[in-house]
Design goal:
heterodimer; A: about 600 residues; 7-stranded mixed β-sheet; 18 helices; 30 strands; elongated; B: about 650 residues; alpha/beta; 17 helices
Chain lengths: ~600, ~650
């Protein structure tokens, strides 16, 4: 299931839309832009245990190998719903081209992949899954991206990463081919939190902005309130002697919550132990220390004096602690209660109503996390047993996604010409779509999985203009452009091989080695005017002056009148001194005016001219 | 396009480039060699320094006993040390739009420029350059402010007096413009104007020019800059290195196809091989320690020190120095060591991959963890109680005029067991040592300068092939001390354009084209015609819009004729839509006659002339003069005929 987006030049046909069915399970988007094919993220669905967990690449591979089809793959961040299928795609389906991701993502992604592989293969005994070696081989194809660096994938395709908040190393990408461009946000967060900054992008005016919309309808209350709520709930539970389980992913939200609890414990002088499961903690915190430049400003500023990721109150968890009496707080992985330690602890504590589980993030359909959040109190476990859920279930949205307000804010920042929502639920997206179309009057699409959306772009054509021509035109318009008086320019466009050059017509002749052919017209007009030749000429001059406003008209001392470059001479007829013969002469370039003048003068001069 | 050269120091440049209506300052180097003329600033009272005799001229006419002191035959100014600033009179610095910084050594004059010239622009630098640059400035300010000097000597600067002084004071230039150090407040204000950029990031300046930093391989975050429009490209090469040390390797290929390449910051030690120097550094260090002496390494707080520590990390166990304490003393020692570990993106590949493990990229983390390396903010405090000898001390400032190093010079200078090892190339070691003479301690000079040498740079230039090279005049002749070494200069064809302080160069640049965008509607309306195989032409008449230095061409819409209430003339004159296209080609006689015939014009008398033919259309009393490069239609009183003839002629011609 792949979203395929096609950007077409000058396309006139309406956007093609097929199929339906949005969900938050995994991200994998295919963009075709200016003849380039780019895969954006390569995620896996955590709610499935079968083939459906990986994207269906047969859509592409029916026409050949992935490597031939794709120009590059870009991974926005290390969450498995964005990178979980990467080794499957590169090693099992087969892709040898470049994979771009930021340094922190490159560092952390293989660890999470290995972690997940272990749970799936070693614990559940599944086969037909990628191996450790495949993860390593896959990571060898990764090219690290730095923020704001413009990476030239090939001569035409360039990509640029922007800070996205969300998790350590999360990035949004700007993809550009010629004058067409797309921005893909991945998951992002528009408000800084305790350890990360807010997403930012410049006014890059992409043809299309592809945004996640996990929290499409939520306008979340202030962060402070949510934090206070969270701390209050934890505190109450501890006070009455309960145990608190917080299922998290080892990296990301976990660090933010640790910082939060650490400072709270310090302030309130609490003694109940806080544990962090899995050996990953130490290592995870180390990544945060080494990639401190990716955290928020406050942490970066003070890291020399006090490293926020060295925790005093939080200790490593051991499986046996779960049965210890008395209150405790345990952070355990994974975050959706679908496997591993968090699930084990949950099973142990679920029967006691004094205990509490706090789900700090979104849970995909099919996971136990999702079920208990939906109020399910009896769970079917493997081996036909059922589990009664008596403990308190709390949902605290800490997962750092942009809410509706944030999404609108990003649109305001980037000013896209079209909008596309992915990674959200259909009903919520529909609501947001309406809001976007109303506020920004841009087209907003929400493709279903496997659906193709074509977005029409209308790029302007870049041309090299000769500086002489440009300066001439700019000088005509004066130093300050006058909106009422458009500056017209005339030139010749030379199209040669791949170059487009706009030069003055004279220069075009010269450059192409062509001769100029002068086409001139001479026309005699007879006129009854009983005055001397010079008086007649002056009368003509006065007449034309009054008729032709805005033209250059000169009365020259050599007995001619010039209108622009048209020459008018007067002589008397040999037979009749009152009959004057006017001689008009003009070149083809002045044809319109010349034709007009000859017709005008044939009508004679108005009386009353002095 | 003009280049204003505000600094004469080839490795601490400050140039201003005027390019397409933008004014761009390239680096902002502070020439600190001026401080060598001053007495050292001791941290604790130094009886030796305070007892130095005042200098009196031989004839006794000049007696500035408060200002000038003599030590071992040299005269020093007894005042707060002062720096030689970039030239400020050559152009109005408030007109500078942006400052591009290439590395943290080349930004030390920034507060003088941004705070006191009316500068309102933006400074661009990479994150490591900003952070480490801030540390170096903070260190400089701390060094100066913690030992304030009551007096500020100015009398010696009087031209009449300076003329009478012995060298090198006598020859010091622009001494009136020398300035004392800035304050921390000025540093903060200056650095608040910095906007961070990443390598290969394209930054648009006013829509006219695009600038982009490239990795230069010299230090953390160091960059060269590309300044380009669609048709012109200037490369600015500042301190760059091709050696494999800690920073990301130099990006050479992006410098290709430059119209002008401004070359600064070559090695100051063209004859010293950095690897050899590193070896000598280690062996001298080991020798001194084994003999029970102390080693003093005057250094900057960032840069080569990371490589020295890494080298020692590998060396100390083999050399049995595992128990020798290494001290790094600087107000910013801790910050510098910490910051070095967090810039993985800016490091060489080897160090980058360490971060993925995750391990700190520099091994000095381990030296600190195992207590082999200790860092202190100054000699006061913990250091004085924890300090053990023999030891190795890394401390600044390399000029030996201020900072904690002054204390160690006074402390260890009298014993021949101790050694001072110079590794920084910025100061002549003999000049640096002058106010400490006579000295008993050993002096070893191992300058490590990883910047490009002449051999590397000529190879690089051959590779990237700029049309013109601009460089400091020092690079166009061999160094004075080695006048016969013609390999220690740039030999290029065409020869490089040399500059010196206060030069204004007209760069040999002819701009011919500019980028303009044809809007889709106009593009669709164009009718190209093939004039030669592969070459097509189209006449363009359009409205030119120029906004933010971006030009677009829009389709010309005929202005609708607004009916006027009172018509003075029956016909409106044609709206000036601009001239008709130029014509090209020739009208062949026979074919033209045939065409005329087809249109019912049969009575044509053809007369041959020198340049062609005259056709007399007898029935119509009209003449057509046909020539190779022109056609003249003389037709009276018959407008329909004239237009018919016109159109027939046009059939044979190409329009452009």
């Amino acid at each position: 299931m792949i979203h395929k987006l096609t950007l077409q030049d000058h396309a006139t046909q309406p956007h093609t839309v097929r199929g339906a069915g949005q969900d938050v399970g995994r991200s994998c988007i295919l963009v075709s832009i200016g003849g380039k094919n780019i895969m954006l993220d390569c995620g896996m669905h955590m709610g499935y245990n079968d083939d459906r967990r990986f994207p269906d690449f047969s859509y592409i591979t029916q026409n050949g190998r992935l490597t031939e089809f794709l120009d590059c793959v870009i991974i926005s961040h290390f969450h498995l719903d964005h990178c979980g299928a990467l080794p499957f795609m590169s090693e099992m389906v087969g892709y040898d081209g470049p994979i771009y991701m930021t340094h922190p993502t490159k560092a952390i992604c293989p660890i999470l992949l290995e972690d997940f592989r272990k749970i799936t293969v070693d614990k559940k005994g599944e086969t037909n899954f990628f191996t450790s070696q495949m993860i390593k081989d896959c990571m060898k194809k990764v090219v690290p991206l730095n923020l704001h660096q413009t990476v030239q994938v090939d001569d035409e395709l360039e990509i640029k990463a922007y800070y996205a908040g969300h998790v350590l190393g999360a990035a949004m990408v700007h993809i550009k081919v010629g004058s067409e461009s797309v921005v893909y946000t991945g998951d992002y967060n528009m408000t800084p939190d305790r350890h990360l900054g807010a997403a930012w992008i410049d006014k890059c005016r992409p043809d299309l902005l592809i945004s996640e919309s996990t929290y499409a309808t939520t306008i979340r209350d202030s962060k402070r309130c949510r934090e206070r709520d969270f701390l209050k709930k934890v505190h109450e539970s501890i006070e009455r002697g309960g145990k608190v389980l917080i299922p998290v992913f080892a990296l990301g939200r976990a660090q933010e919550l640790c910082i939060l609890l650490e400072t709270f414990w310090e302030r309130m002088n609490l003694k109940a132990p806080i544990y962090f499961s899995t050996g990953l903690t130490e290592k995870a915190n180390h990544y945060y220390k080494l990639f401190i430049t990716w955290t928020n400003q406050k942490i970066r500023k003070t890291f020399v004096q006090r490293n926020m990721f060295e925790f005093k109150h939080i200790k490593a968890f051991d499986r046996s602690y779960a049965d210890n009496p008395g209150p405790m707080v345990v952070f355990a992985t994974p975050g959706m209660l679908h496997a591993g330690q968090s699930l084990q602890i949950f099973k142990k504590w679920a029967g006691n109503e004094k205990n509490m589980v706090i789900m700090p993030g979104y849970c995909v359909q099919g996971t136990i996390g999702h079920k208990i959040l939906n109020g399910q109190r009896k769970l079917e476990m493997e081996g036909r047993s059922t589990l009664d859920v008596k403990l308190q279930v709390e949902y605290m949205s800490f997962s750092a996604h942009a809410d509706a307000k944030g999404i609108m804010q990003l649109i305001r920042m980037a000013e896209p010409r079209n909008m596309l929502l992915v990674h959200g639920e259909a009903v919520k997206m529909e609501f947001l779509k309406g809001k976007i179309e109303q506020e920004f009057s841009i087209d907003c699409h929400m493709p279903a999985n496997g659906e193709t959306v074509a977005v029409t772009t209308n790029p302007s054509v870049p041309v090299d203009i000769s500086l002489n021509l440009l300066k001439r035109e700019m000088a005509l318009g004066g130093p300050l452009p006058d909106p009422k008086k458009p500056r017209t320019m005339h030139g010749t466009l030379i199209m040669k091989e791949n170059s487009l050059k706009l030069v003055s017509s004279e220069q075009a002749l010269k450059e192409l080695g062509l001769n100029e052919h002068q086409l001139r017209f001479t026309c005699r007009v007879q006129l009854q005017d009983p005055h001397s030749d010079s008086d007649t000429l002056h009368r003509i001059y006065t007449h034309l002056k009054s008729v032709l406003k805005g033209y250059t008209i000169q009365h020259l001392p050599d007995g001619t009148v010039m209108v622009e470059s048209i020459v008018i001479k007067v002589s008397s007829c040999a037979e009749d001194a009152n009959t004057k013969v006017l001689l008009l002469s003009w070149s083809y370039q002045d044809e319109d005016l010349g034709s007009f003048l000859s017709t005008l003068l044939k009508k004679g001069l108005p009386s009353g001219l002095c | 396009m003009k280049l204003y050269c505000l600094s004469g120091h080839p490795t601490l440049p400050c140039n201003v480039l005027k390019f397409k209506s933008t004014t761009i300052m390239l680096d902002c180097g502070l020439d600190t060699t001026s401080v060598l003329n001053f007495l050292p600033l001791p941290l604790v009272h130094s009886p030796r320094l305070s007892k130095l005799p005042s200098w009196v001229s031989k004839d006794g006419t000049i007696n500035l006993e408060k200002e000038l002191k003599e030590c071992a035959g040299r005269v020093f100014v007894d005042s707060q040390p002062e720096f030689c600033l970039p030239e400020r009179e050559l152009l109005d610095l408030s007109t500078v739009d942006v400052i591009l910084v290439s590395n943290y050594h080349c930004m030390m004059a920034l507060p003088y420029i941004t705070e006191h010239t009316g500068f309102t622009g933006t400074v661009y630098a990479t994150e490591p350059t900003l952070q480490i640059g801030r540390l170096l400035m903070e260190e400089l300010v701390t060094f100066m402010e913690r030992v304030p000097k009551a007096q500020s000597a100015t009398c010696w600067k009087n031209k009449e007096i300076q003329r009478m002084l012995p060298g090198p004071l006598k020859d010091a230039v622009d001494v009136w413009t020398w300035k004392r150090s800035y304050s921390m407040q000025e540093v903060n204000s200056a650095l608040s104007k910095v906007q961070l950029v990443g390598y290969s990031q394209k930054v648009e300046l006013f829509g006219a020019v695009q600038v982009s930093p490239l990795s230069s391989g010299y230090s953390l975050g160091s960059s060269n800059w590309i300044i380009q429009s669609h048709h012109e490209k200037v490369s600015y090469v500042s301190g760059s290195s091709l050696l494999t040390t800690h920073p990301q390797p130099m990006d050479q290929s992006s410098l290709k196809n430059s119209d002008v390449l401004i070359l600064t910051g070559l090695t100051q030690m063209p004859t010293a091989n950095p690897d050899g120097m590193l070896g000598e550094f280690c062996s001298n260090l080991a020798m001194t320690i084994r003999a029970g002496g102390n080693v003093l390494v005057p250094c900057y707080s960032s840069g080569v020190i990371y490589d020295l520590l890494e080298c020692l990390y590998q060396f100390i166990d083999n050399a049995n120095l595992g128990t020798t304490p290494f001290y790094f003393i600087s107000p910013v020692a801790n910050s510098s060591l910490e910051f070095s570990q967090i810039f993985a993106e800016w490091l060489c590949h080897n160090k980058q991959s360490k971060v993925y493990l995750p391990e700190p990229p520099f091994p000095h983390a381990e030296l600190i963890q195992t207590n082999k390396l200790k860092h202190y903010s100054s000699i006061h405090g913990d250091f004085s109680s924890e300090f053990r000898q023999p030891c190795v001390v890394f401390t600044g400032h390399p000029s030996l005029r201020f900072g904690d190093v002054v204390h160690f010079m006074e402390l260890w200078g009298k014993s021949s067991l101790n050694t001072i090892i110079f590794t920084e190339p910025d100061f002549s070691y003999l000049d640096a040592l002058a106010p400490y003479q006579p000295l008993a301690m050993k002096c070893v000079y191992c300058p490590i300068d990883t910047r490009l040498n002449f051999h590397q740079v000529s190879k690089l230039l051959k590779e990237v092939q700029p049309l013109h090279v601009v460089c400091p005049e020092q690079y166009t002749q061999p160094p004075q001390s080695q006048a016969h070494r013609s390999d220690l200069m740039l030999e290029l064809h065409p020869p490089p354009m040399p500059y010196r302080r206060c030069s204004v160069l007209n760069l040999p640049f002819r701009r011919r084209y500019e980028r303009v965008y044809i809007l889709p509607e106009l593009a669709n309306s164009l009718v190209p015609s093939e004039i030669k195989p592969g070459v097509s032409l189209a006449t363009v008449s359009a409205v030119l819009h120029s906004k933010d230095n971006k030009h677009t061409l829009q389709r010309l819409h005929a202005i609708p004729n607004v009916p006027k209430k009172r018509k003075r003339v029956p016909e409106e004159p044609p709206v000036l839509l601009g001239p008709k296209p130029l014509l090209s080609g020739a009208v062949p006689l026979e074919a033209f006659l045939a065409t005329l015939q087809k249109h019912g014009i049969t009575e044509v008398k053809v007369e041959e002339t020198a340049d062609g033919h005259i056709l007399h259309l007898q029935a119509e009393d009209t003449l057509i003069q046909l020539e190779e490069d022109g056609t003249h239609i003389v037709c009276d009183n018959n407008e329909p005929l004239r237009t018919t003839l016109r159109d027939l002629v046009l059939r044979f011609l190409q329009r452009l």
